[in-house]
Amino acid sequence: MRRDGPPSDAKTSPSDYTQGWVASRYVAGETLDDALAAVDRLNREGAAATLDVLGEDVTRREETGYFVDEYRRALAGIAERGLDSNVSVKLSAMGLKFDPELAWQNFREIAAEAKRRGNFVRIDMEDSSVTQSTIDLFRRARAEFDNVGIVLQAYLRRTQEDVARAIAERWPVRICKGIYVEPREIAFRDPDLIRRSYAYAADRLLEARIPVGIATHDEAMVVEALQSIERRSARREDYEFQMLMGVAVGLRRLIVRQGHRMRVYVPYGTAWRGYSLRRLKENPAIVRHVLAGMFRKEGAL
Ligand SMILES: Cc1cc2nc3c(=O)[nH]c(=O)nc-3n(C[C@H](O)[C@H](O)[C@H](O)COP(=O)(O)OP(=O)(O)OC[C@H]3O[C@@H](n4cnc5c(N)ncnc54)[C@H](O)[C@@H]3O)c2cc1C
């Protein structure tokens, strides 16, 4: 298969200052070396990482090869430098939206490489058009590999049923609120309902001793999870908190200081614009920080 070079949506100009600043805060850099250096800094701080090669919604078969190669390089780089990091993969970059069988073959290569290196692959969850196909591919992978995990999104109405299945089949789960814009019939819109769904799902997973990644920057959700951890007598190795690079750094350090495991999601690559835009949409207040950042340099990790 012909393998294209890296996808790029980055055509930086001085007027892109805001997006560029956002990218430098939320993205480790364009190269694997940049990403591994960020992981090294996080490890020294007491946090593990998960590497994400930026790019999604690939539409051509040839483009998917780049991601497979890059993930293999990332797994090799992590092993060579002895870093504490796994990888997170978007199946739409593997071809899921136009050829599920191709996505499976691509994912299988990455999972096998991770297995060979004693590492782990998390499948990120994307928009609701691929919820079921992502779970189907994950279950197929689970039949062959024990080093793969999935993400469930608390905003989806179906999620408590998926939690039940995750418990029955013992899937390693990352629970997050969910980041895509979904119709009301499919997803809760009310932030309070999403929080209740999140806290309930996390509690059920902790009670069942499913290896759970508690992915949130919402302090209320962190407190709920801490209560569940205590109530369910969860052991330190049963769960980890997870956060995105550059977000809620103070809260992250507090959690680490309290002795809990923490994993930071570290995206890298040339396709940084879409990711940065999503972060901007999620938190428009960031523009204020951009202005502040013009005058002082913050620790962005
Ligand atoms: C490790 C990890 C992996 C994820 N994987 C997925 C996935 O596979 N699929 C998916 O749909 N979603 C994923 N997400 C995103 C997730 O679904 C939420 O959209 C995101 O985490 C925001 O929700 P929250 O729980 O942090 O709560 P919120 O209520 O959104 O945020 C809590 C607080 O954090 C601050 N905050 C949140 N985001 C930002 C930001 N970007 N910049 C600055 N401050 C911010 C807010 O201002 C707020 O004060 C992931 C999140 C994390 C942390």
Write the layout of secondary structure elements.
Blueprint: H1 17-26, H2 32-44, E1 48-53, H3 61-80, E2 85-89, H4 100-116, E3 121-123, H5 131-144, E4 148-153, H6 159-169, E5 173-176, H7 191-207, E6 212-215, H8 219-231, E7 239-244, H9 249-257, E8 262-268, H10 272-282, H11 286-293
Parallel strand pairs: 1-2, 1-8, 2-3, 3-4, 4-5, 5-6, 6-7, 7-8
Helix pairs in contact: 1-10, 3-4, 6-7, 7-8
The structure holds flavin-adenine dinucleotide (FAD).
Describe it for me?
The radius of gyration is 18 Å and the shape is globular. It has an eight-stranded parallel barrel with strand order 1-2-3-4-5-6-7-8, surrounded by seven helices. Strand 4, helix 6 (159-169) and strand 5 form a beta-alpha-beta unit. The N and C termini lie far apart (37 Å). Helices cover 48% and strands 14% of the residues. It has eleven helices and eight strands. Helix 1 (17-26) packs across helix 10 (272-282) and helix 7 (191-207) packs parallel to helix 8. It has helices spanning 17-26, 32-44, 61-80, 100-116, 131-144, 159-169, 191-207, 219-231, 249-257, 272-282, 286-293, and strands spanning 48-53, 85-89, 121-123, 148-153, 173-176, 212-215, 239-244, 262-268. By secondary structure, the chain is of the alpha/beta class. It binds flavin-adenine dinucleotide. Flavin-adenine dinucleotide (FAD) binds at residues 124-125, 151, 153, 176-180, 215-218, 221, 242-244, 247-248, 265, 279, 282-283, 286.
